Amino acid sequence: MATQTTQTTRRLAAAAIATAALLAIAGFTALGSVFEYPQILKEPTADILELYRQHQGAVMAWFVVLMLSAALLAPAGILLGRLAGGSQGRWIARLGVVAAVVQVVGLSRWVLLVPGISRDATDPAGTADAHHSFELVHTWLGTILGETIGYALTAAFTVLITLAVTRAVAPRWMAYLGYLSAALIATGVLIPLGLEAASLTNFAGYVAWCLWLIAMAVYLWRTPRTIPGGPAATGTGQRPAPAPGTASNG
Description:
Blueprint: H1 2-34, H2 45-54, H3 56-71, H4 73-84, H5 86-112, H6 114-121, H7 127-169, H8 172-186, H9 197-222, H10 231-234
Helix pairs in contact: 1-3, 1-4, 1-9, 2-6, 3-5, 4-5, 4-7, 5-7, 6-7, 7-8, 8-9
């Protein structure tokens, strides 16, 4: 029964992370086509809102896709946390949920707030106020919360999964890819400081991260192996204490 439960958890986790990656790829690709995202964010506010109005329905729909992708980090974190077990598993679950909430809130501005702001901007009497509102929302919900804090949480989440899960079920190159994608994603916190190169490294990190998620999903779905210290290995969901004279794997 424990083995069957672990297999179900592995496959649910695989489905969650694969779906998150595929939705992210689809969302970013479509928004890059119809909204020039994310490059458009460097343009003046008036230009951003003008392009947004031209394709509002499609832009909103694809941001909903990105929100769904981000939201899947919560169940993925919970399921992967169960596989890892112990304190690492609990941190994976917590970081997955918090990262999901932060990114969903940040992305939701394009669906909940920007439509009204964009409409107000077409009234000459309210244009200046609308532009100011957009810049506030973009700074606090976008740059600070959804992006900077979101990048840091996603990077930490990825490192923990790599330490606790990837190394146990996948080849060594998968662990290296996990660490590399986390490091590149983390460079995104430097973007607000004006480091232009960080935009490129952050983008490369998310490409690598999506590939890593898909590869992880394949290994989780197919592997019959249990994770050392995980629930199926210990029967309790807690990591066993290392034997005297040995180092813990975590």
